[in-house]
Amino acid sequence: MDATILKVERPGRWDSPLDPEFSDADLDRLLQLAPFSEMNPESFSRKQPLRAILQNDSRIRRFKRGELIVRAGDYGSSAFMIVSGTVRVVLPPGLPDRVLGRRDSAKKSIFRVIAQLWGNHRNPEVRTPEELGMGNRNLVGEGTEARVFLQDVPRLLDQNKTVTIGSGEFFGEIAALSRMPRTATIFCDTDGTELLEIRWQGLRDLLKFDPALRAHIDVLYRKNTLSNALRSFPLFQHLSEDQLSRVAAQTQFGTFGDYDWSGDYKKLAQSGTNSPEKETLIAQEGDYPDGVVFVRSGFARLTKRFASGQRTLNYLGAGRSFGLKEIAHNWRNPENPRPFQFSLRVIGYTHTLFVPTQVMEEIVLPGAPKHLLPEPLTAPVDDSDAVDPLKDQGGFAERIGPELMEFLTGRRFFNGTATMVINLERCTRCDDCVRACASTHDNNPRFLRHGPVSAGIQVAQACMHCVDPVCMIGCPTGAIHRDAAGGSVVINQATCIGCTSCANNCPYEAIRMVEARDTGGAFVVDAELKPILKATKCDLCLDQYGGPACERACPHDALTRMNLTRLDHLAEWLHR
């Protein structure tokens, strides 16, 4: 076999700055503005100095009036600070999709799809010169992203509620740091508006070394975003602006667990101590219900005492609440108050909004639509060992069964929106799914038909395109990111430096590092003759007609890509 190799310089942390043309003059100007002028450069580390963070992880962008900056529902990994000019935030219900210029992700033409049958590279993991970093290695969209302008801005302003924000204000930081979709559409209000865009890796480092900026971001969130966050929950949508302001003034923020939770999760899984009792407690069964917990992002586990331990009843994600049943019951029946019927525990990392009981009883509940209020609680349960706590949870947990529920929750598979689930009773191990994936991805499959098993169900080692994709946390260049159109987690090969951060962070072993080849089939190495690595994983066949090739290729209907945040879908699939 030919041992031909190609030497290239090993990529580094800031080989792909957000703006390669960011000048020293731009940087000096930026350092004259608050909050950067108030930061102490000595508080930053040698490897991550203030100047280097700003010069490599930020860029100044200029917008024209009516130009869209961010769109509600899109995924983004950057925050913005207004340097000059003003922007407008569109309040709910927001603008229709057709106005926002949304479109489907590009698919391969039918001819290119057919050509894959004979046009794949003979060698696996071939990369073009641009993907190897030998060309211009800008981030996704740099220089090529289409700019969208709103048409007839005066009419849109008449028909929609908006808020104007100006110089020195931040926006987009919560979505960037919490890996959530944007909550509002924001467009430029004045020609020549300048924005400083900071990718989340840089913002994370700034917050790490500057406590004042952390406090400033918290104040801005309470001022600019909290009302929208509350409005996203149906229970608050009937409130007037004055009532919502009163609720927001007394709402408390809660942040539980670790932002980079995958490392601790892996240690717990390996030691066999990954159980509910080891997780941070948000609210405990039997305690006085002092408020309603609304999950803003992340996940929490709903449990109940059962025998000598805890049984998982459900997992709560963004948009779900805890404690409303008890508080609504006590409000209706003050002579027969109830404590919390269940416990709520953190799974990984959870953002919550906590609305005190007094606020709920005085402002929220009196005018709430009846269909949003829970049914009164039944007779108190004094002996939890004598009943099955899986009942009265919509029936889904009961149909799935306690063994599989603990399996999904303990391993945090509920995080996946496109989890590869295999019914082993139907699967004949023919590997048609593997071959289909390989033929779609240049002769190398992007998943392993291998993984943990429970109750005859296997969860394969394929990217689940998580609600909370912790793989994105440590990427120094932002190469792993969300597709703006569909939210799938994808990797930009041009900016991947092979640092293995995403592969190490992935809790599900779904990302693999491979040795790259050039278009001639030669292995690519650095000056020390060490191979250049690239991260690969399932991309959900975003450019293919018909969706994931693995699912379409299964001849026995044994494999599916499933959103495990929906227990009803899982229960239906199990009992089809």
How are the elements arranged and paired?
Elements: E1 5-7, H1 24-31, H2 50-57, E2 58-63, E3 68-70, E4 78-84, E5 87-90, H3 97-100, H4 110-119, H5 153-159, E6 162-165, E7 170-171, H6 173-178, E8 185-188, E9 193-199, H7 200-209, H8 211-231, H9 241-250, E10 252-257, H10 262-271, E11 281-283, E12 291-306, E13 309-316, E14 321-322, H11 324-332, E15 343-356, H12 357-364, H13 396-400, H14 402-410, E16 419-423, H15 432-440, E17 453-454, E18 457-459, E19 480-482, E20 489-491, H16 501-505, E21 512-515, E22 523-525, E23 533-536, H17 549-553, E24 559-562, H18 567-574
Parallel strand pairs: 1-22
Antiparallel strand pairs: 2-9, 3-8, 4-7, 4-9, 5-6, 5-8, 10-15, 11-15, 12-13, 12-14, 12-15, 16-18, 16-24, 17-18, 19-20, 21-23
Helix pairs in contact: 2-7, 7-8, 8-9, 9-12
